Amino acid sequence: MTVQDTAKVTPDPGRDVLEQLMSPPADLDPYPVYAWLRENAPVYASKYGASLISRYADVQYVLKHPEVFPGACEEAMAQMFPQAAGHEAYQVLVTSLVGSNPPKHTRLRGLIGKEFTSRRVGGLRAAVESLADRLVDDAAERLRAGETVDLHTAVSLPTPLHVISDLLGIPSADRSRLAVLVPAMMNVVDPAASPAAVNAADAAFHELGDYLGALIAERRRTPRDDLISALVLVHDDDNHRLSDGELRTLLFTLWSAGFETTATGIDNALLVLIERPETRKWLLGDEPSATAFVEETLRHDPSVQVAPGIRFAATDTALSGVTIPQGTQVRLMLGAASRDPAAYPQPDDFMPGRGGATPLSFGAGIHYCLGAGLSRLEMTVLLPRLQRKLPALALDGPPGRRRSIPLRDFTSLKVRLAE
Ligand code: HEM
To answer: Which superkingdom heads the taxonomic lineage of this protein's source (predicted)?
Structure first.
């Protein structure tokens, strides 16, 4: 579909855009709806109470001006999500890093940021390389034996799952069990979550919360060389720089933000390699060439389609000529901004090294993704290995998609060796 075609798509005026994005055909291809939004309703008032912002310049403005569009505080959240009163899972949104404002945000980010400096992340390279070698070799062996392999569960998910778990100190035996709780918990990020989805989020929130509580107590008794132990020390020091709730939520956030997002990025990149074989050469070159490929996959089809941070207008503010009244909830449509022709010429084309506007796939400003360097490391280590060891893959059926928004994630990506 060309840019002109996508702009001509007219969503059903009787249905809210968020509902359309979650059902066929937009659940599989949201980009025509995004094109319509950018052109016709760059500030779209959803019946779910949020104004959806879709143009690159507006999204970037909101991200970079937290004083004009701060994160929703507890009172604002209570107004925006009346259901939050009876559902603890919404605490993730209010008390998390992305939901907090300066000075609290500055303090929390200062405490945790040093664990994610480029030097620290670079130090993980050898471990990521050996994990990637092991997972890719296992998958290659099964494929060469004629099996169909689900690369989502065999490679894309375990890579970031083990990396973030090793960093935090989550024991291997517990990882798979806990991993399924994250998508359930993240239902609350969805602006149009159903009551059943919110109940499932609550259950997952409790299970993960209890688990982390027990792990914190264990590390307090017997510290190890991991991030949980380091944060417990910060919590317990003289000034109590980290409160009980903050410690728990930080672990929550790091654990939940740390793998579904990256797994989706890897799955998306794999789809590009399979469906656009001419792009494979980017992974056979030097490191900058692999980096350019990874950056373009993150722009072309961002894992995080709606920014998790819920903001509101601190004062009446105009975006694209539309006044957003004070107190309005604002959601940033990163998937739409990433295909804005005003920022990226021929935005639907896949063009590694295209240059142009700064990608917003990891956000921007004070809430810029803490794990961006880690995800990039994982993707640039893993994808060239996959391409070298499995140069010709074919899909074995359509990919299984879980959702379209807020995270455009996968449940399966079955492949076989191409003839
Ligand atoms: C491809 C993978 C990833 C993508 C696309 C992604 C995307 C994003 C985006 C868009 C934001 C900004 C949210 C907003 O402003 O509303 C963000 C923030 C954040 N991300 Fe990521 N993320 C990824 C991987 C990770 C990983 C691996 C971690 C964990 C180490 C992580 C931890 C965080 C945290 C803690 C924040 C909040 C930062 C703050 O508020 O200061 N992310 N991410």
So the answer is: Bacteria
For 295-353, write each residue's pLDDT tens digit. 999 999 999 999 989 899 999 999 999 999 999 999 999 999 999 999 999 999 999 99
Determine if ligand 1 sits within 6 Å of the CB of residue 333.
no
Judge residue 88's burial from the number of C-beta atoms within 10 Å of its C-beta, 0-12 exposed, 13-18 middle, 19 or more buried.
middle
Residues 6+ apart with CB under 8 A from 303: 260, 261, 262, 264, 265, 268, 361, 407, 408, 409
CA distance 86 to 70: 24
Per-residue pLDDT tens for 202-224? Answer: 898 889 889 998 999 999 999 99
Counting from 1 in the atom list of ligand 1, the atom nearest the Cα of 253 is 35
CATH homologous superfamily of 3-417: Cytochrome P450 (1.10.630.10)
Mutational pocket test of ligand 1: of 111, 370, 383, 410, the residue with most ligand atoms within 8 Å of the beta carbon: 370
